[in-house]
Amino acid sequence: MNRIFQTLRRRGGLFLIRFGVIGAQLLVLLVLASLMQRSEFGAFAYGWASIQLVSALISLGGPGYLLREMSARQAGPEHGPALLQVLLIASAGPAILAFGVWFIIRSLISHDLLPLASPDFALVIVLGGWLNNLVANIAVPIRVSGAANTAMFYRDGLGHLIVLASGFAVAAAYPTVSALRVLEGYCALAVLVVGAGLLIAALRARSAAYFGNGKQPFNLAFWGSGLTAMLAAQIDILIGGLFLTPAHLGSYQILRKAANLLSLPQIIANWSIAVEASRAFASGDRIALKESAREGLTIALVPAFALGVTLLLASPALFSWYHIPVDAQSLMTFLVLTMGGLANVGFGANFLIAAQCRLEHLALRARLIALVAGSALLASLSPALGITGVAVAMATSTILMNVLIWLDVQRRLGVDTSIFSLFGHRTQT
């Protein structure tokens, strides 16, 4: 237990930054909503969400690939991506895809198939998505150099601050604040963010080597896994929403958003141990790899458990604030979602270890199997059980996904990423 608290103290900065980012996101939305008319804020929200979606669609899985390869480079010059690889994966390849996406979005807006008034939104959305993806890639060398806190703030927090700055600038220059102008300002400021990130990465190059011989081929499984994860995050709404009333769907959304807070400690743990795990695997040091997995658990478990207990204790206030019926169905739904989130943390950094140890194709397979199973369960349970059926389907899908990759990691690497490793158990497969 003492080791757990020592680890949490050492990584405390990441928790502060991550929760600060969440607070900044909420602040930005509240401030922009106060600056804009409701219709313009709706257009902004749609455009901002579209930028995040385009960023994932055109990424090619570059940030995950570069995190693994640049981390492995720290084990020796025989590892690491070549400079040309980095330019193609992080910039040129996504730019080519972005051009095709721009044409599609422009056509949809022109034919009134998207709720955006002007085709000019198409260019802003695609450019913003490309810049977002570039920022995610630039954060990787900053992280590899040892600046974990700086990299997390640069990747996850700075974008929201510059969109807020854009909103204030537009409010000062124009009588009305339009969504298009705010997003245009965001793109202009994001160019400066890209430049600043490149400068930071260059200055940090004294602490880490970024480029190698590029012998490890690029695998699109990183891209597929990211897109599958994005789809899995929305499948409960897409399928479950077919069988729920709008009121029930709204209640479920609120409960799901609250339960999703349990993923934050795991995100922080993965960001903390990624470089060490890849370096250990590249060096052939399985003991160090196991220690990385255990450190991830020590980072995530206590905060996740504390969050879970807090959420359950605060559920009466949550239900009252959002006018959610305090009945058996709602209570069971929230309990199932919370238990599913805690189970996810209990399996540890299994997907991170798989990605950093060249098992990304198995991670993609586990996500696809769980997505198919979850979709089938949603279609079968939602009509009969309502929001509780949706929650059971998603929790089951999450556990199945984790079990599959957990078994693969044990079988291929001999590493137990789960909570059992902290108690000295070794699961035989």
UniProtKB/TrEMBL annotation:
Entry membrane topology: Multi-pass membrane protein
Transmembrane listed as a keyword: yes
Keyword Protease assigned: no
Location in the cell: Cell membrane
Transmembrane regions: 12-33, 45-66, 86-109, 121-145, 157-177, 183-203, 296-319, 331-355, 362-381, 387-407
Species: Hyphomonas polymorpha PS728
The protein's name: Polysaccharide biosynthesis associate
Record's keyword terms, sorted: Cell membrane, Membrane, Transmembrane, Transmembrane helix
Any single GO CC term annotated in Swiss-Prot or TrEMBL for this entry: plasma membrane
Coiled-coil stretches: none
